[in-house]
């Protein structure tokens, strides 16, 4: 598994001369900050420090957390999390926030894993000069999905989730800008909302897509590189070492490849139960631009076929759009809280 290989690289770096966690006396420790070497001794956990990459790996039998000096971005297993404060290197010692320790010792009963408020990008497809698919009843995809996206936003906000809308009115947003909105460290999930169409008017149902593994061409795409620079800048790591940048991107990729299929399957499964009269077309990988180039877990939901007369009528029904949005909200909340967010 990619994550295990990355930790193996860290351990090799440690064995090459940077294995000891800095131990010098520390003055002016920030409020609620903990000296890493002290929590290692107290809780009997393993702490590994990579001075080259400025990363720390904290391990117990139950979990392993990788964090980076100066950044709130961290990884608990393959899950991306946000720390309450960035680890610091002060007077030669690594200072970490208490929630990093909590993630390690919680399963042993010493503390509860803190819950973070989730942040979700809701992306209403098309808009402005791009109407999307045109329904057999003349309904426009861009109008249908904007209404569903707003309902998803409202449901998530009521649950205490922060929502970022790529568009909240009838405007055109480029695919590049949409993917950038899902490439920020504060974003936990990117949801792109669409309505399907097919020349075969009997085609119907709901399907959910996630990005499959990326090839070397995908990883070298200009847009992905630009999104990566945006992510590093947001994390304050634009001037970091090449080794640290590689670790960050490898971890983001591993997190996305692990979380996106699970989120996609959860939404597909939940909508199948919520809307049993609609055909469940399943969860599957796809190469849509916004899925390939976002750096956080991302799915694209096709809410039905406007080319099918029955589904086109349903998608123009307020009650049906509300039912769709409610089902998506419930599955996203379930996924977020299962993640400990």
Reading the helices and strands in chain order gives: HEHEEEEEEEHEHEHEEHHHEHEHH
* Radius of gyration, whole Å: 22 Å
In terms of DSSP E residues, the strand content is 15-25%
CA-to-CA gap between the ends? 23 Å
Annotation field: number of helices: 11
Order of strands in the sheet with most strands = 10-9-11-14-12-13
Could you characterize what this model shows?
- It contains 11 helices and 14 strands.
- Residues 1-20, 23-27 and 107-116 have low confidence and may be disordered.
- It has helices at residues 2-18, 36-43, 98-105, 141-158, 175-181, 216-219, 222-235, 242-274, 289-293, 309-315, 318-338; strands at 34-35, 46-50, 55-59, 64-68, 73-76, 79-82, 88-90, 93-96, 119-124, 162-165, 189-196, 206-211, 280-286, 298-305.
- Strand 2 (46-50) and strand 3 form a beta hairpin.
- The strands form 3 sheets. A 6-stranded mixed sheet has the order 10-9-11-14-12-13.
- It is of the alpha/beta class and 341 residues long.
- It folds into 2 domains: 2-108, 2-Layer Sandwich (Copper Amine Oxidase, Chain A, domain 1); 119-338, 3-Layer(aba) Sandwich (Aminopeptidase).
């Amino acid at each position: 598994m990619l994550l295990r290989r990355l930790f193996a690289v860290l351990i090799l770096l440690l064995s090459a001369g940077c294995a000891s966690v800095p131990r010098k006396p520390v003055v002016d420790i920030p409020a609620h900050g903990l000296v890493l070497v002290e929590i290692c001794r107290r809780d009997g956990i393993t702490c590994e420090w990579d001075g080259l990459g400025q990363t720390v790996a904290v391990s117990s039998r139950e979990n392993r957390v990788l964090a980076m000096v100066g950044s709130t971005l961290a990884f608990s297993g393959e899950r991306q999390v946000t720390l309450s404060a960035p680890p610091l290197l002060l007077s030669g010692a690594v200072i970490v926030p208490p929630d990093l320790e909590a993630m390690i010792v919680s399963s042993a009963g010493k503390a509860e894993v803190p819950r973070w408020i989730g942040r979700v990008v809701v992306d209403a497809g098309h808009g402005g000069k791009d109407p999307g698919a045109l329904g057999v009843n003349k309904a426009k995809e861009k109008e249908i999905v904007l209404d569903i996206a707003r309902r998803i936003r409202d449901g998530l906000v009521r649950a205490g989730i922060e929502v970022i809308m790529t568009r909240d009115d009838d405007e055109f947003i480029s695919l590049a800008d949409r993917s950038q909105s899902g490439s920020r460290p504060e974003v936990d999930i990117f949801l792109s909302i669409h309505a399907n169409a097919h020349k075969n008017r009997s085609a119907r149902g709901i399907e959910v897509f996630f990005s499959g593994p990326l090839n070397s061409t995908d990883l070298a795409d200009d847009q992905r590189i630009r999104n990566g620079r945006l992510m590093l800048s947001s994390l304050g790591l634009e001037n970091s070492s090449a080794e640290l940048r590689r670790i960050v991107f490898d971890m983001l990729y591993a997190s996305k490849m692990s979380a996106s299929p699970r989120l996609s399957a959860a939404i597909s499964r939940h909508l199948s139960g919520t809307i049993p009269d609609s055909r469940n077309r399943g969860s599957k990988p796809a190469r849509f631009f916004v899925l390939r180039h976002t750096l956080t877990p991302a799915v694209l939901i096709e809410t039905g076929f406007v080319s099918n007369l029955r589904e086109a009528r349903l998608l123009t029904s307020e009650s049906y759009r509300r039912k769709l949005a409610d089902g998506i909200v419930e599955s996203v909340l379930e996924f977020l809280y299962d993640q400990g967010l």
